[in-house]
Backbone:
């Protein structure tokens, strides 16, 4: 999990937010862009199968990985490291992303 500058819808307001990086390490090392899932602290649709609750910084403070917004960002827009997801969290984000792209 890292901080990244994500461009808003239709090129509006760029906002700094946590993201989960989903692209593979070889692409991360050699490519110019990263595949990410943006996160939000405002989740009005908790029932969505593409939403995954994760702790960002403070224990007990949850944000939502919104896997329906899979996107790519240039590496230069990705900033500071936040933390590594544990295997169960990564599994949940991967599963929700697979739902989004129609594999499941």
Residues:
């Amino acid at each position: 999990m890292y901080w990244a500058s994500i461009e808003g819808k239709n090129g509006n307001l760029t906002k700094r937010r946590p993201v989960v990086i989903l692209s593979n390490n070889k692409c991360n090392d050699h490519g110019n862009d990263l595949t990410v899932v943006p996160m939000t602290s405002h989740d009005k649709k908790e029932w969505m199968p593409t939403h995954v609750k994760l702790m960002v910084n403070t224990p007990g403070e949850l944000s939502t990985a919104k896997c329906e917004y899979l996107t790519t960002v240039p590496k230069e827009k990705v900033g500071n490291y936040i933390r590594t997801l544990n295997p169960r969290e990564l599994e949940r984000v991967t599963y929700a992303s697979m739902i989004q792209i129609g594999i499941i």
Strands lie at 2-7, 14-21, 33-40, 51-55, 62-66, 71-74, 78-81. The longest strand covers residues 14-21. The helical segments are 25-30, 87-100. The chain has two helices and seven strands.
